[in-house]
């Protein structure tokens, strides 16, 4: 197992957002986490990336207990979250933003190779490489955030709502790119409101309800599960 979350709880003050969740991500997988607004999807990501401390349970990454490890040290171990929303550096150009993603790395040849790869994955970013990040459209900024995360060459890429606010055509595109990223060897854990697309792309998925995992299965199984269809796919 690349990532193993075991009975993790998390509190925001007196509010308990996660009630002992357990989930696993194996190397090479795309795993999706779906659930309604407020179910705890982003919170789960924050626990994994180390932005919020957990109140109980264990997180293992690559066999190492990282439950109490600082967020920046998790990034160095290959656990990288594309910033929530569009957290890019607005005053820096596209290229400078991508460079920042590689800040933990020293292998210049590898960095150059990954830059090529990101610019190939996102031709739109290649066209705008000299443009300040803050002047990109919302969708382009979202792509830049994903591209920047890829520049750290993560073992596990955490994506929190990568399709949020994108036009339908771009949503398709971003999911195609996620599949490509995975086929090129990166394991992906994905949080999505867009359950249909996420389940169609994911090898496995978990359903989160009010801070608890209530169901898991292959993407295919959950796509055809009547209760999942009812609650999350907008079709009876
Ligand atoms: P959405 O799809 O709407 O983004 P989500 O599944 O990602 O939802 P979370 O953002 O993880 O949900 O929130 C889970 C619960 O924790 C919610 O009830 C939310 O109000 C609460 N919560 C999240 N962040 C905080 C915070 N900083 N302080 C207090 N409560 C919070």
UniProtKB/TrEMBL annotation:
The keyword Lyase does not apply. Pfam families: ABC_tran. The keyword ATP-binding applies. Gene3D superfamilies: P-loop containing nucleotide triphosphate hydrolases. One of its GO terms (molecular function) is ATP hydrolysis activity. GO terms for biological process: L-amino acid transport. Residues 3-235 form the ABC transporter domain. Keywords: Amino-acid transport, ATP-binding, Nucleotide-binding, Transport. It comes from the Bacteria. Belongs to the ABC transporter superfamily. PANTHER family: HIGH-AFFINITY BRANCHED-CHAIN AMINO ACID TRANSPORT ATP-BINDING PROTEIN LIVF. This is Amino acid/amide ABC transporter ATP-binding protein 2, HAAT family. The lineage of its organism: Bacteria, Bacillati, Actinomycetota, Actinomycetes, Micromonosporales.
